[in-house]
Amino acid sequence: MAQQDTDQQHAGVLPVDDEGFVIDTEEAAERELAYRERGTSRPITVVGNPVLHKECKDVTEFGDELQQLVADMFASQHTAEGVGLAANQIGVDLKVFVYDCPDDEGKRHTGVVCNPKLVELPADRRRLDDSNEGCLSVPTAYAPLARPDYAEVTGQDERGNAVKVRGTGYFARCLQHETDHLYGYLYIDRLSKRERKDALRQMAENEPRYPVVAND
């Protein structure tokens, strides 16, 4: 079946392909614009803020408050020129992330995932990509980090409907990175001590290009 049943076709629900994965590439630019025009950009929390270093709470209410949070997240992501943003990156303790990210074929993916879980891939499908990675919560710092070049995430959309999202290349990295955030991990937590120290040095030596929340 190419998309979800007609009675589920309402705001916030994406069509799905024959394997049940969301089709998040259609009208991606228009959807991203519609989200962020309803939102207010918020400053980004940075490494050291407690909300970034613990598992977030599950999303259980899928009403107007969540819709506004999602809109604010898209607005904040756009201001910071990011490709993905987790709720705790704007100080909100909830398991939700948004994305507006290209894959390795240059296709633009735009969507929302609440309560995400990464699907464990069998060994024969795990090909590592050690490209550079950065994070809006560790501004101006980058480091190579090996991650699988394909990822699948299950969860719910902003209306509470079950969703499956998959991605390759840069988008696969984004899905893994944002899911990590919601369980209390920054990408620098996966680096060696030397690499982490270097990333924090890069951050300290440069000014972020977007508003951030200073740690007390």
Automatic annotation (TrEMBL):
<keyword id="KW-0479">Metal-binding</keyword>
<comment type="similarity">
    <text>Belongs to the polypeptide deformylase family.</text>
</comment>
<keyword id="KW-0408">Iron</keyword>
<feature type="binding site">
    <location>
        <position position="181"/>
    </location>
    <ligand>
        <name>Fe cation</name>
    </ligand>
</feature>
<feature type="active site">
    <location>
        <position position="178"/>
    </location>
</feature>
<keyword id="KW-0648">Protein biosynthesis</keyword>
<dbReference type="InterPro" id="IPR036821">
    <property type="entry name" value="Peptide_deformylase_sf"/>
</dbReference>
<keyword id="KW-0378">Hydrolase</keyword>
<protein>
    <recommendedName>
        <fullName>Peptide deformylase</fullName>
        <ecNumber>3.5.1.88</ecNumber>
    </recommendedName>
</protein>
<comment type="function">
    <text>Removes the formyl group from the N-terminal Met of newly synthesized proteins. Requires at least a dipeptide for an efficient rate of reaction. N-terminal L-methionine is a prerequisite for activity but the enzyme has broad specificity at other positions.</text>
</comment>
<dbReference type="Pfam" id="PF01327">
    <property type="entry name" value="Pep_deformylase"/>
</dbReference>
<feature type="binding site">
    <location>
        <position position="135"/>
    </location>
    <ligand>
        <name>Fe cation</name>
    </ligand>
</feature>
<dbReference type="GO" id="GO:0042586">
    <property type="term" value="F:peptide deformylase activity"/>
</dbReference>
<dbReference type="InterPro" id="IPR023635">
    <property type="entry name" value="Peptide_deformylase"/>
</dbReference>
<feature type="binding site">
    <location>
        <position position="177"/>
    </location>
    <ligand>
        <name>Fe cation</name>
    </ligand>
</feature>
